[in-house]
Amino acid sequence: MTAALEARGLGKKYGKRWALSDCTLDLPAGRVIGLVGPNGAGKTTLLNLAVGQLAPSAGSIRVLGGRPADGPGQLARVGFVAQDTPTYAGLSVADHLRLGARLNPGWDDAIARERLERLGLDPARRAGKLSGGQRAQLALTLGIAKRPELLILDEPVAALDPLARREFLQHLMEAAVEHSLSVVLSSHLVSDLERTCDYLVVLVDSRVRVAGDVDDLLATHHRLTGPRRDPATLPGDQQVVSESHTDRQSTLIVRSEGAIHDPAWTVGQVGLEDLVLAYMSDTPTRSTLEAVR
């Protein structure tokens, strides 16, 4: 199966500043992929490169086996909901559907109208009169009705209240299953990704810190608590992701494919939020960067 996205040494530079640097990724198709990181980490830059709104300064990127925005055929395969869930305030909901039909050769009007009816959106109402949640749902409807193979969403729920956010994500998951979509969802809210995503990418300071299947990542990360110890003394197969120490105690988040047998440690499970924060909070070591290659 063709990968949803492949990047090799990908970078984007603005003046002297790298917004994205040395990004190497293989994102599988047929998955709901969460892209998480702090503000300014490079998430939006990566997604804009993926949809062809930006050109790389270094490296290469392929989406569904082709170059981003390389002609009408490639454009039709990828849907995009930008960070501000763009709609046109002066146009009605029905106007948006007519515009979508004109711009997208694979447009499925039946899907669009069925979603609007299910959501209770009045086709005659102007987008400027809709709530934030309703505008987000309209933008999602336009993305789905395009009938893409890959749907990319850049923090589409960041400005929504918790109820509207939950409803949006629920509808996204239903659409992904119903229409066999590959999805890349960017967010800095780990709780959103925990409910929706089965593959995770953590991006920090413009670099990929970790990427993989969520279940595999949770199974191979552990919290170790025990008497204070220098992490350098751990076995070579235990990669230290983050560490904290008191005078008497050490707490480590480690990545290890095997079981932890040292009786000095109390071994605990790591939740998705703990895992993400561990990779976000500390400066990556050389071994950490090599581990995501």
TrEMBL record:
Comp. bias (Polar residues): 239-248
Entry-linked SMART domains: AAA (SM00382)
InterPro entries given in the database record: AAA+_ATPase, ABC_transporter-like_ATP-bd, ABC_Transporter_VariousFunc, P-loop_NTPase
TM spans (from-to): none
Superkingdom of the source species: Bacteria
Entry GO MF terms: ATP binding; ATP hydrolysis activity
Domain ABC transporter: 5-230
Keyword terms: ATP-binding, Nucleotide-binding, Transport
Region (Disordered): 224-248
Annotated protein name in UniProt: ABC transporter ATP-binding protein
Organism of this sequence: Actinomadura spongiicola
